[in-house]
Design brief:
Blueprint (H helix, E strand, L loop, with lengths): L3 H10 L10 H7 L3 H12 L7 E11 L2 E13 L2 E7 L28 E7 L5 E4 L6 E4 L6 E5 L3 H15 L15 H6 L9 E4 L5 E4 L2 H15 L10 E12 L8 E11 L2 E7 L19 E8 L3 E6 L8 E5 L19
Parallel strand pairs: 5-9
Antiparallel strand pairs: 1-2, 1-7, 2-3, 3-4, 5-6, 6-7, 8-9, 10-11, 11-12, 12-13, 14-15
GO biological process, one term: regulation of protein localization
InterPro entries: PH_domain-containing_M2 (IPR053015), PH_NISCH_C (IPR057714), PH_PLEKHM2 (IPR057288)
Pfam families: PH_NISCH_C, PH_PLEKHM2
Length: 348
Amino acid sequence: YPSEFLMQKITEDNQIPLHLHVSVSLQYVAGLKGNALVEFFHGNIAEVENEELRHLMWSSVLFYKTPNVEAMACVLLSTKAIYFLLDDSFIHADEHQSEFWTKENWDCDNSSFHLSCCFVLKLNDLQSVNVGLFDQYFRIAGHSAGHIVTCLTRDSYDTHTFIQQLMAVLSLLARTPSPEPVDKDFYSEFGSKNTGKMENYELIHSSRVKFIYPNEEEIGDLAFLVAEKMDCLTDLQSLNILLYVLAFQVNLIEGTAPNTSLLQPKTLILTSSDLFLFDEDYISYPLPDFAKEPPQRDKYQLADGRRIRHLDRVLMGYQTYPQALTFVFDDVQNQDLMQNLALDHFGE
């Protein structure tokens, strides 16, 4: 350790997504290569001497206690913990975080000194991992509200790779085995299954961490919600969700440089007849065991919806991934242009 393959892999993965802005401190981390990156990990981040860095990933993250603040983080997976290296501006982004982050050491006037804070989730505290629809994100949950983090990878490959690496690292943990299951009688065995609700697919890892994957019912619930917005509940059987993707809506800021734009996280859902943008709660659902009341907002809130038949053209940028798409619709107040044309328009 570190092997040549690992050095090459973490160097390749240590790239900030071009469309997201990060602080100088995180840019410094992104500039490290190979051995310098491993030394930086052991000198500044690792909590014990014998832990090994196994995986590195850049991702947007959400914390359960601050669900409205999406922050960029360098996620480092070691044999002992998951480290989230965060932009120092994240701490001041939400006034409700005073209890979440301790602020005693942050009065630094020296402008050449760039500070990052690091959130640590020890693998021994890990209880479950919820994988989002189509592997666009995943939620890591511990035993309390302060130990729940969602990584919005917006990329199924990144999600899959991290989950595989996490499972491999968890296999190294020495945990006491689960108690033997108690033999159940016939009635308790079959009575509990008749709730009428299908549970999500669960994989219990040898470390006793649950990996929970969405089932078909979640897509069905989403299709029902979309159909409700379309006012076509009678035609639910023929409604197919063709695409579900976590994206950003680009809003240009007036009065600033022409290239300045604000990226707003949205969930884009495409059906055979409509295009929808939803504001989705990626952190609160499914409800953790300790939650005493439902979250303040629904999981999906409709932000915009347009008919595909009103789509006039799609403009594509020439930059590399992530690609920018502009959808141009020809609807006037959500009505067909030809709908109100009649002969009397040409009379007196």
